[in-house]
Write a structure and sequence with these properties.
With 192 residues, this protein is α+β, with helices and mostly antiparallel strands. It is built from three helices and eight strands. The protein has a single domain, classed as START domain (Alpha-D-Glucose-1,6-Bisphosphate, Chain A, domain 4). Belongs to the BetVI family.
């Protein structure tokens, strides 16, 4: 058995690279692009349904602003209701440079508990990334705990190779740790 599941303070980080083919019908040539994926898994002391109730709705933006002000300064709803197709404007905290970007929720799967958001304007796209997306999957471990699998997928233009170190799953790990603390604190007696 994987020991990282035994100790909730441990997380597993995986990096994988896969190829995506874009077909250009005008010249019928295939261009290969490399998509890199960085993942982390964090155990959360709450049922998957409760964790998804946090991650899977537009209220997740409020949670992020309240619990991670050192990372997220503001999330403004531009379009949608939190479901697939929703567009938000995210502003990082000043200590992180105050970067701003528009993010679109490209997939919300309530049955599989998967949420994928992609930068569509600004942010890392201005720094040479052609794709930058965030993926969250809530996996049921047992009746009282779940796993948050957080991933970043990106493509970096060759001329921007020096910016590779900007790609990081660390902010998503911070989000999972905040969720873990939130659920741990929710289990504590109120009149202690």
């Amino acid at each position: 058995m994987d020991e990282s599941w035994e100790d909730p303070s441990k997380s597993v980080v995986e990096v994988s690279i896969f190829k995506k083919q874009d077909l250009y019908l005008s010249n019928k040539n295939q261009e290969q692009k490399m998509v890199t994926k960085i993942s982390d898994e964090t155990q959360i002391p709450a049922p998957a349904a409760k964790v998804w109730a946090l991650y899977g709705t537009i209220h997740f933006a409020d949670f992020l602003q309240l619990h991670l002000p050192n990372i997220i300064k503001n999330i403004e709803l531009l379009e949608g209701d939190g479901g697939q197709g929703t567009l938000v404007l995210v502003t990082f905290a000043p200590d992180l440079g105050g970067m701003r970007y528009k993010e679109k929720f490209v997939k919300i799967d309530n049955e599989k508990r998967i949420k994928i958001a992609e930068m569509v304007e600004g942010g890392y796209l201005d720094l040479g990334f052609s794709v930058y997306r965030f993926c969250f999957e809530i996996i049921e471990k047992d009746e009282e705990s779940s796993i948050v699998k957080s991933s970043v997928e990106y493509e970096l233009k060759e001329e921007a190779a020096a910016n590779i170190s900007l790609a990081s799953v660390e902010p998503l790990i911070a989000i999972a740790q905040a969720a873990k603390s939130y659920f741990l604190n929710a289990q504590q007696p109120k009149d202690a």
